[in-house]
Amino acid sequence: MQQLLVIGALIILGSLVLTFNRSTQNVNANNYFNTAVIDATASGQSIIESIQTKAFDEQTVLSAVTSAGDLTGVGSLGPDAGESNPLQFDDIDDYDNYTEVDTFQQFGNFSVSVQVNYVQKYSPETISSTPTFIKKIDVTVTNSYLVQPLTLSRIISY
After folding, report:
1. Other residues' Cβ atoms within 10 Å of the Cβ of residue 120
2. Do the Cβ atoms of 55 and 90 come closer than 8 Å?
3. pLDDT in tens, 130-152
4. How many other β-carbons are positioned within 10 Å of the β-carbon of residue 49?
5. d(CA 38, CA 31)
6. What confidence tens digit (pLDDT) does each residue in 14-43 have?
7. Average pLDDT over residues 105-114
8. Region 73-96: what's the mean pLDDT?
9. Torsion angle in degrees (nearest 10) through CA of 36, 38, 40, 41
10. pLDDT given at position 18
């Protein structure tokens, strides 16, 4: 009878230890994931803040524009001649198709890519095939610790 009680106690103890270990492992995995999301968000937000300091369009760097038709054409979004890095960019759409790698100590490299598009006035999720006074910036950050890429978006109007 005593042996059965000891065996039962060992089974219960083993079950508790396994449950505790599994719970601790889940908490650690969640902490890693949350920290990776925070790092990815910081990286993406940093790029967005840099972009927001630039002129709306190449045509608005030195003067005002009153017609959307005077803005850079949809097919010409991206860096202008002679602009090869963010220090040379002078307007928002120079960042179109821009990529960089941001390194964090704990989770290594985060790949950051930027897309800039004109969007429709009353439907900012709809990309416009012609210039408008509204641009949408999508910054996508990827890292092996993220379950899926993190995309931050910002709408900027002129």
Report:
1. 15
2. yes
3. 999 999 999 999 999 898 999 99
4. 10
5. 11
6. 777 767 767 677 667 778 888 999 999 999
7. 92
8. 94
9. 160
10. 67
CB contact set of 144 (below 8 Å; sequence gap of 6+): 107, 108
| Residue the block writes with tokens 């990815």 | 40
Q: SS in 3 state form for 65-118?
A: CCCHHHCCCHHHCCCCCCCCCCCCCCEHHHHCCCEEEEEECCCEEEEEEEEEEE
Q: How far apart are CA 39 and CA 51, in angstroms?
A: 19
Token digits for 21? 């270990």
Q: Where are the domains of the chain?
A: 2-157
- Residue 155 is encoded by which pair of tokens? 């709408």
Angle made by CA atoms 32, 141, 78, in degrees to the nearest 5: 165
CA 7, CA 93: separation in Å to the nearest integer? 70
Question: Which tokens is 43 given?
Answer: 């990286």
The residues near 44 (Cβ < 8 Å, ≥ 6 apart) are: 112, 139, 140, 141, 150, 151, 152
